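User: tokens in, sequence out, please.
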């Protein structure tokens, strides 16, 4: 999970909106933020055992990602965000809110940067939290478009 966020971060540093190692025509789409949740729901009901989905605001450094695993009837959703440069202050606010909601955020050392991981037992809980991050923490407007990238672990 942390490796995927690092790939996205490196892509950001190259001013690309999609991590090149992950992007191809079949695994990338752009649209409103709700496309992120649509893609997660579609993949979660399929046969793929473990997958990730990244939503990066087009023209912005802001992104969120989720790693999903487990059997279709018992999926686990892990919200991931790097804790570095652009995201450090955001990560602190996200971590505080997660604790306030009774969640257990975990900082994971990913080498040159660390990551904030928050686990959810269901899609809707993850979706509510990710929407809060994008709208309230990042402050991104409702109509902004996102590059959505996905793949298997």
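Assistant: Sequence out:
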């Amino acid at each position: 999970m942390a490796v995927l966020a690092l790939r996205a971060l490196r892509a950001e540093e190259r001013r690309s909106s999609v991590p090149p190692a992950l992007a191809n025509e079949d695994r990338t789409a752009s649209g409103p933020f709700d496309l992120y949740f649509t893609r997660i729901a579609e993949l979660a009901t399929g046969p793929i055992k473990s997958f990730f989905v990244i939503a990066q605001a087009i023209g912005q450094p802001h992104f969120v990602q989720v790693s999903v695993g487990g059997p279709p009837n018992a999926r686990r959703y892990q919200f991931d965000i790097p804790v570095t440069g652009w995201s450090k202050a955001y990560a602190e606010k996200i971590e505080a809110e997660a604790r306030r909601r009774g969640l257990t955020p975990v900082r994971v050392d990913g080498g040159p940067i660390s990551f904030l991981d928050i686990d959810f037992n269901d899609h809707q809980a993850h979706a509510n939290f990710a929407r809060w991050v994008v709208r309230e923490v990042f402050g991104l407007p409702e109509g902004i478009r996102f590059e959505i990238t996905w793949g298997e672990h």
